[in-house]
Amino acid sequence: MPPLRAISKLIRHPPCRLYSAASSTRLNAPIDYRSTPLLHHTSSSLSSSLDIPDTATSTSLNLYQAINSALRTALSTSNQVMLFGEDVAFGGVFRCSMNLQTEFGSERVFNTPLTEQGIVGFAIGAAAEGMKPVAEIQFADYVFPAFDQIVNEAAKFRYREGATGVHAGGMVVRMPCGAVGHGALYHSQSPEALFAHVPGVQVVMPRSPSQAKGLLLSAIFEHNNPVIFMEPKILYRAAVEHVPNEYYTIPLNQAEVIKPGNDVTIVSYGQPLYLCSAAIAAIEKEMKGVNVELIDLRTIYPWDRQTVLDSVRKTGRAIVVHESMINYGVGAEVAATIQDGAFLNLEAPVKRVAGWSTHTGLTYEKFILPDVTRIYDAIKQTLEY
Amino acid sequence: MSLNIVRRAVLPLRRARILPSPFNARIAGRCSSSISQRPGSDRVRFPGAVNSKFTSQMSFINASDMPNIPTYRVMDSDGVLVEKTREALNVSNENILTWYKNMLTVSVMDVVMFEAQRQGRLSFYMVSAGEEGISVGSAAALTPDDVVFAQYREAGVFQQRGFTLHDFMSQLFANSNDNGRGRNMPVHYGSNYPRNHTISSPLATQIPQASGAAYALKLQGLQDPNKPPRIVACYFGEGAASEGDFHAGLNIAATRSCPVVFICRNNGFAISTPTLEQYRGDGIASRGLGYGIDTIRVDGNDIFAVYEAMQEARRVALSDGGKPVLVEAMSYRVSHHSTSDDSFAYRARVEVEDWKRRDNPIIRLRKWLENEGLWNEDLEQSTREELRKNVLKEFGAAERLKKPPIREAFTDVYEELTEEAQDQMKELKRILEKYPNEYDLHQFEEGINGL
After folding, report:
1. Which of B121-156 are b and which e, b meaning 16 or more Cβ less than 10 Å from the residue's Cβ?
2. Which residues contact B232 (CB under 8 A, 6 or more apart)?
3. Contact residues on chain B for A105, CB-CB shorter than 8 A
4. How far apart are CA B259 and CA B320, in angstroms?
5. How far apart are CA B425 and CA B222, in angstroms?
6. Are residues B220 and A90, on separate chains, in Cβ contact within 8 Å?
């Protein structure tokens, strides 16, 4: 794995997904992050959507800067917080830990040897002695060597320790995830469903800079469980919005209704929300009177079933969208829960729009992952069922 | 992602600027010196090996040409101190008698519990026979504030650190007094203080965890100088040392200068696999040097050697701001691997009998005690009898005690019960109420109301 990864680092990656779209493209146009309604382009809407005072100041940041701001806030809030992983010291290969070692010292911000199982094992041990380690796995694709430490150890630590009261709840494992247009097999994966099958860990994926900071601070300070924090790396530079400067948190157990609607519910998380938003805009423009409800799960497990069920009981139709493949994916769990909890309200089958059950072959990415066209088509099919 | 190549190129320089805190003096020293090759130099200054001499002799280093790492021993198998001129042991006779009784306790408990498993009164058991000296001797060198990560054949560590027969039996019978709340297989002991982390079955996972825990103790010591100096002791067998986590744990402990002592119990077998099929180097100790870790091999049947090596290892681990140490303790697994194993399927009974007779940590210390006039056959008989009585008493009491309430199946997965878990508990309760004859609830505290 390391030699290949090193080679891949030589490639300069443009920040957003490239669609070699035909000139006739109406749906699959590149996402314009500067105009999407999903981002706070000004500071004025922040205080209404986040639980922060009106007087809070904010700065326009992209996702990696927001993560950096969250980590800086965390490191200055508590000397229990430590930050480590591969290449973290110089700022990280995605710049998320820029300047943090200079500010907080090499005792608390440091490089580890290149060993994912070592990094997560180390984090568990530090958390068990009361620290709040934030471990970085350089790409979610490389978390698998640490799978045993996450599944058998971190997730089960509190349960097996029982009455000793010892736990590894202070730990957070951050990892960049998702496709970037040319990441191929090992720089594109989103293994959230694998972790969602593991009781004992919380799995989180933010969609935007302000959400990332609030959720990450929440993962570090407000929730005493091991958290898998997945950062859609395509948004690191692309998504820019106003982010509060101070400490604030977003609870990990609540989904967010991004856009209310009455006719169909779309449930998604992470980057595909932007695709959903674009598809919804196209449909609503085309079919007057139709309005679609869009829900961001934010926390993939344990997830906010009530918000989703309430929505589907109202709309009667549901679509789940995610980038990771469809087979045994998050969509399967959400769809099963909907049919169990809102069976009598359903007017159409729950549809899943997700990556096909294959690997992310380099030149085929745009055919494999969900795009605006597929989501648009799914909404139409669901409405017309 | 796009910046990698640019940033990587300046990495060594930046690191040199950032690191020179006293905390990282060793690394900083190495980084801040120029790594360029001076003309005419007799040694290589590659960044990956900064002090390697050139040679025009092409020779591969062959491990079998190297002398094997010697085994430190204080007393011979007759319980006589090998070095007549050495200074006296720095332990009181009273403490040594406690060690002996602790080894004996584990040994007596092993016999009773192994038999109990054979009678079906216990689901599983693993004895420590032949390795009591390693666990009791090493634990005797720890303070109560030190933290232990164990594998599973270290009952002596728990015994030496204050775990009582009551605690052992509660865990073995998974009853309502069990720290593990009835969740873990037998011999997966755990305690908060002195902190012995609850044992987990996956092998070697505790090794990088021990490194991280040691790093935490070191950081906490730096942040609060009033904290007592603490180390982590991490135990594992020679089979577990083949796992990737061994490599990860030792390497990360070395690069982060963690105050941790790794204690490998090399007992010759991993279940049925002899060491010849486990590794081809000079045991586990030879690997420590490769990681830049201070290493010693000791006679694990010699409790004095184990104790002295561990005491020194602890001192070294706390020196220079913290560093890891590896102790390889040699012994022989005279018992079966576990109650699920018949070891005579893969090794000769006569070999085992031979080891039992020839060398054994308990007999060796007993001989020393007898030579010193501190022990005799009468004391041996009465102590064994009393221990056996105590074991059986706690055994009976623990066996009669109820299991924890059924809700403990769902608690502690997360800090709080999730809404999903609450739903599932309700659903299970509905099933239990609807089909009362299908489930035996009487052995669980609070019965149906325990949910």
Report:
1. ebeebbbbbbbbbbbbbbbbbbeeebbbbbbbbbbb
2. A125, B146, B147, B148, B149, B210, B211, B213, B214, B217, B258, B259, B260, B261
3. 21, 23
4. 10
5. 45
6. no
**One fold for A43-244 and A256-384:** yes
The residues spanned by each domain of chain A are 43-244, 256-384
Residue type, B159: Q
- The H or E element containing residue B350 is helix B349-358
Give the C-alpha distances (Å, rounded to integers) separating A119 from A109, A174, A368, B235, B385: 13, 11, 32, 19, 49
Encoded tokens for B39? 């003309």
Question: 3-class SS at A173?
Answer: strand
Please answer whether residues B305 and B91 qualify as being in contact, where contact means their C-beta atoms are separated by less than 8 angstroms.
no
* β-pair partners for A173: A135, A228
Q: How far apart are CA A238 and CA B397, in angstroms?
A: 65
Note if B338 is an active site residue: yes
**Would you put residue B421 in left (φ > 0), alpha (ψ -120 to 50) or beta?**
alpha
Q: What is the ipTM of this complex?
A: 0.93
Residue A105 C-alpha from the chain's centroid:
29
Distance from CA of A49 to the nearest CA of B (A): 25
Q: Which two tokens stand for residue A160?
A: 């097996």
In tens, the pLDDT along A252-302 reads 999 999 999 999 999 999 999 999 999 999 999 999 999 999 999 999 999
Domain residue ranges in chain B: 65-400, 406-450
A10 at interface of B, judged by CB pairs closer than 8 A: yes
Closest CB from A117, A158, A225 relative to B208? A117
* Sign of the alpha-carbon torsion through B9, B13, B18, B24: positive
Looking at domain B65-400, which of 3.40.50.300, 3.40.50.970, 1.10.10.10, 3.50.50.60 is its CATH number? 3.40.50.970
Rounded to whole angstroms, the Cα distance separating B182 from B168 reads 13
Query: Which three-class secondary structure state does DSSP give residue B6?
Result: helix
Here the tokens at position B301 are: 């049947």
Chain A CA closest to residue B215: A126
Q: Sort out which chain A residues have CB atoms less than 8 A from B415's CB and list them.
A: 158, 167, 169, 223-225
Identify the band that residue B36 occupies on the pLDDT scale cut at 50, 70 and 90. Answer: low
Instruction: Please provide the CATH number assigned to the domain covering A43-244.
Output: 3.40.50.970
Give the number of other Cβ atoms within 10 Å of residue B416's Cβ: 14
Q: How far apart are CA B164 and CA B172, in angstroms?
A: 12
B317 Cβ neighbours under 8 A, 6+ residues apart = B214, B231, B259, B260, B261, B323, B324, B325
Single-letter code of the amino acid located at B357: R
- CATH code reported for the domain at A256-384: 3.40.50.920
- pLDDT digit string, tens, across residues B286-320: 999 999 999 999 999 999 999 999 999 999 999 99
User: Which residues share a beta bridge with B294?
Assistant: B325
